[in-house]
């Protein structure tokens, strides 16, 4: 069946994470247990922030959205990967592949921009505390959140638009366990040099700029915190340190995958696995474990439900 962009391929065969059946079963069990433990924790974070009147500060508003983004992001790749572990033939349709790719970059790009917004929030709170309530008012928070979602959509739609213009006439074996730009481009029946450059610019360069900008901003914030003698110094240091950990987990693998020419490396699948499956669920949990207010509120909610 021929489509407008001369695409003849109607489905892709996923090579998978590994060919070893024993390793597949081991990863399946570990990821399944990990999801049973961590995923409810992400939803508990969202419930806690929404139900506790004491957690209305912009910091917690953005943390709740981070938990929502990461929980949503984890549903793009992991469920299908778990099903494929139990299947002999790992196949995804052309349209299914494009849909997966769109949401992967929509939510991933949105999360990157959300981390930029959270860095801006911490900068105003720590370096300009007298202006914080004025700058980070509820309306500004919703505008920043809308901008984050819009930015993720624009980033993703550019990726999809470039992919849709490519002809796919075979082969159709995708050397990965999900659909992503570097592997899909390599299957196109045309010269993809210019498209690869555009993809690297849209994903890689923007990711690197955001990463370096975030590190620079938190360096400024940490220098300001060290120079101050306020009572909240330790809390500010803890919050910023947690943000930096999340930034490294989010941007480190993305830089490795998208800022170089699309050449396959042995570590690609392992990095992609942690980037798309493990780290998204861990980010909000890491943050929560270092935030006393959220932990206390979660304990109260859990105790109330246990009493009921």
Automatic annotation (TrEMBL):
Ranges where the G-protein coupled receptors family 1 profile domain occurs: 41-287
Membrane topology per record: Multi-pass membrane protein
Segments crossing the lipid bilayer: 23-47, 59-78, 98-120, 141-164, 205-225, 237-258, 270-289
Pfam families per the UniProt record, alphabetical: 7tm_4
Function per UniProt: Putative odorant or sperm cell receptor.
Cellular component terms per the entry's GO annotation: plasma membrane
Originating organism: Catagonus wagneri
Protein name: Olfactory receptor
Matches recorded under InterPro entries: GPCR_Rhodpsn, GPCR_Rhodpsn_7TM, Olfact_rcpt, Olfactory_Receptors
Subcellular locations according to the entry: Cell membrane; Membrane
The keyword DNA-binding is assigned to this record: no
PROSITE patterns registered for this protein in UniProt: G_PROTEIN_RECEP_F1_1 (PS00237), G_PROTEIN_RECEP_F1_2 (PS50262)
Family: Belongs to the G-protein coupled receptor 1 family.
Keyword annotations from UniProtKB, A to Z: Cell membrane, G-protein coupled receptor, Membrane, Olfaction, Receptor, Sensory transduction, Transducer, Transmembrane, Transmembrane helix
GO molecular function annotations of the record: G protein-coupled receptor activity; olfactory receptor activity
PANTHER family hit by this protein: OLFACTORY RECEPTOR
């Amino acid at each position: 069946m021929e489509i407008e962009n001369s695409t003849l391929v109607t489905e892709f065969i996923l090579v998978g994470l590994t060919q070893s059946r024993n390793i597949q079963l081991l990863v399946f069990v570990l990821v399944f247990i990990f999801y049973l433990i961590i995923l409810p924790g992400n939803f508990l974070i969202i419930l806690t922030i929404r139900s506790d009147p004491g957690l209305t500060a912009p910091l917690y508003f953005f943390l709740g959205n981070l938990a929502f983004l990461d929980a949503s992001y984890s549903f793009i790749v992991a469920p299908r990967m778990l099903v494929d572990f139990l299947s002999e033939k790992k196949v995804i349709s052309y349209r299914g592949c494009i849909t997966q790719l769109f949401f992967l970059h929509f939510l991933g790009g949105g999360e990157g921009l959300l981390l930029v917004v959270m860095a801006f929030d911490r900068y105003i709170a720590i370096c300009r505390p007298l202006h914080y309530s004025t700058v980070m008012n509820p309306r500004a928070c919703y505008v920043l959140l809308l901008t984050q979602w819009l930015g993720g959509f624009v980033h993703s739609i550019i990726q999809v638009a470039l992919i849709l213009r490519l002809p796919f006439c075979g082969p159709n074996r995708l050397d990965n366990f999900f659909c992503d730009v570097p592997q899909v481009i390599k299957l196109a029946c045309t010269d993809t040099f210019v498209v690869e450059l555009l993809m690297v610019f849209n994903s890689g360069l923007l990711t690197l700029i955001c990463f370096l900008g975030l590190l620079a901003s938190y360096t400024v914030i940490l220098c300001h915190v060290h120079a101050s003698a306020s009572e909240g110094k330790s809390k500010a240091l803890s919050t910023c340190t947690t943000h930096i950990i999340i930034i490294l987990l989010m941007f480190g693998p993305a830089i490795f995958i998208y800022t170089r020419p699309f050449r396959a490396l042995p570590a690609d699948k392992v990095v992609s696995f942690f980037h798309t499956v493990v780290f998204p669920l861990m980010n909000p949990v890491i943050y929560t474990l270092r935030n006393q207010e959220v932990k206390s509120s979660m304990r109260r909610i859990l105790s109330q439900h246990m009493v009921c």
